[in-house]
């Protein structure tokens, strides 16, 4: 039987290894691309509405300066919810309520 060198088992095994390496490399590149895309968005989110005592205090001060009305009442409810979430360790909920309170102080 005539044997074709291109069909040797060693060559097929080598091609399979190369394909496996390329698949893993593409997976790593995809994960890195996602990480780089998400990191700036998370940093901006925390910088703008991160739940901290300083941000709560600034927002409370802005709420006190608001004229009486529905907007002020809504902002006060949101800041109370943010404080409650902070005390219960729910940082995501705290940030969401704080962000809503901040937007209310901007006159929206």
Structure description:
The chain has helices at residues 9-49, 53-64, 70-87, 91-105. 16% of the residues are buried. The protein is mostly helical and 108 residues long. It is rod-shaped, with a radius of gyration of 28 Å. It starts with 8 loop residues before the first helix and ends with a helix.
The overall average pLDDT, rounded, is: 77
User: Describe the biggest sheet?
Assistant: none
Gyration radius, to the nearest Å?
Answer: 28 Å
Low confidence ranges: 42-49
Helical proportion? over 70%
Provide the structure class: mainly alpha
**Secondary structure tally, helices:** 4
Specify the oligomeric state: single chain
- The shape is rod-shaped
Number of strands: 0
N-C termini distance:
83 Å
Strand content: under 5%
**Which H/E pattern describes the elements?**
HHHH
Sum up the structure in keywords.
single chain; mainly alpha; 4 helices
Briefly, what is this?
The protein is mostly helical and 108 residues long.
Per-chain topology:
Blueprint: H1 9-49, H2 53-64, H3 70-87, H4 91-105
Helix pairs in contact: 2-3, 2-4, 3-4
């Amino acid at each position: 039987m005539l044997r074709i060198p291109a069909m040797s088992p060693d060559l097929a095994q080598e091609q399979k290894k190369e394909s496996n390496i390329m698949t893993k490399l593409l997976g790593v590149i995809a994960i890195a691309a996602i990480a780089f895309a998400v990191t700036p968005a998370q940093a901006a989110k925390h910088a703008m509405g991160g739940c901290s005592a300083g941000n709560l205090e600034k927002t409370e001060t802005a709420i006190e300066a608001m004229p009486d009305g529905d907007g002020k009442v809504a902002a006060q409810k949101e800041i109370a919810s943010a404080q409650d979430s902070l005390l219960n360790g729910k940082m995501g909920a705290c940030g969401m309520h704080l962000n809503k309170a901040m937007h209310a102080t901007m006159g929206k």
